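Record pair follows.
FIRST:
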Amino acid sequence: MGFTHIFDHPLIHHKISFLRDKTTSTPQFRQIVNEIAMLMAYEISRDFPLVTTTVETPLASTECKRLAERSVVLVPILRAGLGMLEGFQFVVPSASVGHIGMARNEETLEPEPYYHKLPGHVTEAHVIVLDPMLATGGSACNAIDFLKSQGATDITFAAILGTDQGLQKVHEAHPDVRVYLAEKDPVLNEHGYIVPGLGDAGDRIFGTVDAD
């Protein structure tokens, strides 16, 4: 099986309890998703490439480490992945951003692409795919398939909740892709939703829970 990191941090567990709570409001839910994304970004960025540069302090010249330019591309899967984008951008403001649109067919439970836009240097960058939920793994695999077709070779997938089924599907199809989960849940229901989960992340982030 490929690389999987499941966070075990008190702050992340605490915040996810509010995401799971059905009484959490849309503004609160959106803010907490951002906060969890920031905490995840700190660990995921541990191996980002650095370059040496010389700066002038008030007292002397010194060599410092900085992130290599154009080294990180964040790719949220629309629409729910947008909820994690701001948190990652807060930690890595120099990152470029691409987008991949995936919508789940509620009958087949399979993802269907409808939009994509990527930076030109995606072939050289560490690409981080963002999606709050890794359920069946279908959207993740389709997004990674597309990124690889565009030349991406260094890919990480970051989700707040995932399942063994989703992890297995991603690692079987893409054993080279690193997967980070804030927490892992036990099962999927017959509709392909994570249980106990937190509901539909996109609906709760954007306030469309009651939309037709």
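SECOND:
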Amino acid sequence: MAENRIGLLRWRVQARRHPSAFLLAAQLLSLVLYPIFDETRSSGRVLFGALGVVVLMLAVWVVNRSPAKVWVAWLLAAPALGLSVLSVVLANDTLLVVSSALEALLYLYAASSLIAYMLGDHRVTADELFAAGATFTLLAWGFAYAYFVCQAWYPGSFTGALRPGEPRTWLELLFLSFTTLSATGLGDILPLSSPARVLVMLQQFAGVAYIAVVVSRLVGLTMLRATK
């Protein structure tokens, strides 16, 4: 019993020291699980909703640890969570789209708060390195939800090498987001409508700015500390 309490205490200490690491781990874990559930229908929607709830709560938690106002995050997270659950229970696609729009705003807000947290410190810590990875995944998820909303509002906004006439799955949109943000540009998922292309251009700009401002600064501070 005492060992369990000590172990739990250690986890709490690590969570307070490295909240960004837990968010990054949750995002990467969901990446591993998505291919398993992506081909399912109703059960997949329930599992996606459950994963989204966990990641949303972690996103709010990370915002609370950063300079951002936590009430803004909860203002986005609370209705997003409620609408996500209702969309699964009622099988209502409209509620799912509205929930996705709120989740996109929440992820982008959490990413901006982590960027402010990293830029506000002149000493590179382990949590800031985890925050750099978590920020990248938050940006990727945020734009993926934006793509999902765009596809719902403007049918035919995206096409792909496989089943070009069908809507893109969530995993395909997330894949597009990662390849765009990382400037990989594999080209098997393409934007067709003007709103979709604008979103892709905005994400390309965000990816370049993230590397130029945040990552280069962390690398520079790390090298400066090593020379001292």
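COMMENT: The first strand starts at residue 158 and ends at 160.
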